[in-house]
Amino acid sequence: MNLLQVAGIYRHDNGADTLKGIGFTQRAGQKLAIMGESGAGKSTLLKIIAGLVQPTAGEVLFENERVPGPHEKLIPGHTAIAYLSQHFELRNNYRVEEILSYANQLPAEEAAIVLEVCRIDHLLQRKTDQLSGGEKQRIALARLLISSPRLLLLDEPFSNLDWPHTKLLKSVINDIGERLSITCLLVSHDPHDILPWADELIIVKDGMMVQQGSPEYIYRSPVNEYAGSLLGDYCLLSAADAALLTGTAEQTGKRLFVRPEQLIITPGKERALEGKVGKLAFAGNTYEIDVLLPRYAIKIKAAAPRVSKGDTIYIALLPGSPWYL
């Protein structure tokens, strides 16, 4: 069942269209993510879905009922849709339990589960000006959840957090879906936030949808270079080099799109490109290696490379379906 239907959304601001015909659906329980560069219209789209910004054209249906915009409703917003802004705000000099009690619409037992899911049980007696940024964000999230929403919109929720708080918040968001049965729609610019989490991914650019599909499909088979670039490092090999690596005829005018982990160092020259090692960078569980080819450079990843800067090496392509752009 479709929980959310977004149809033909346009938004005109300051003489320009910031959204241009956006449309998609989201099923109940489906983890949907939206990615795009800064200024692509992601936040505006979320606010329109939440009923906080008026679309110029198009409509949003939630549970088959139209979501009115702020021009049509005295108090903007939909009671079953919660929106967590990048710039969440909590009243200063209030205890956490006071902040939450004002918004609570749940029985005590269910409210206690929300506090547990958000990992804030131990913060109830603290005042809001005694909290870290990560703690404040989890409290702002709990304040939304105890209003009993059925759809949660998360606008760049990890953008202002360090790694430990990011890891904790990711765990919280997983539990929101699994333990509270609240459907989540998340906007982020970081592939590490999206790839392990989302069931479906939408790529937007300049207010338009560029591609929609599973994160794995878009990661391996982007519709264009822009979509591919959002999900991590990549290489575009010339048509001639692609033909050499794949052992197939050259596809005129098309380049081979590969991720660094799809390329390996090989001892032989057959179906391989010759290059020189440029920069080596330690990246945790792998090394990132810049390989200088005669006409351009590519990047590969290797677990424990036994090479040094300036070495001549041969690069081969791992088996799989090649993807051309």
Question: Layout of helices and strands, plus pairs?
Answer:
Blueprint (H helix, E strand, L loop, with lengths): L1 E12 L2 E12 L4 E4 L6 H8 L7 E6 L2 E2 L14 E4 L11 H8 L4 H10 L15 H13 L5 E5 L7 H18 L2 E5 L3 H4 L5 E6 L2 E6 L1 H6 L4 H6 L4 E3 L1 H8 L9 E3 L4 E4 L6 E10 L4 E6 L4 E6 L9 E6 L5 E2 L1
Parallel strand pairs: 3-8, 3-9, 6-7, 7-8
Antiparallel strand pairs: 1-2, 1-4, 4-5, 9-10, 11-12, 12-18, 13-17, 14-15, 14-17, 15-16
Helix pairs in contact: 2-4
Which key features would you list for this structure?
25% helix; Rossmann fold; OB fold (Dihydrolipoamide Acetyltransferase, E2P); 325 residues; alpha+beta; 2 domains; single chain; five-stranded antiparallel sheet; six-stranded mixed sheet
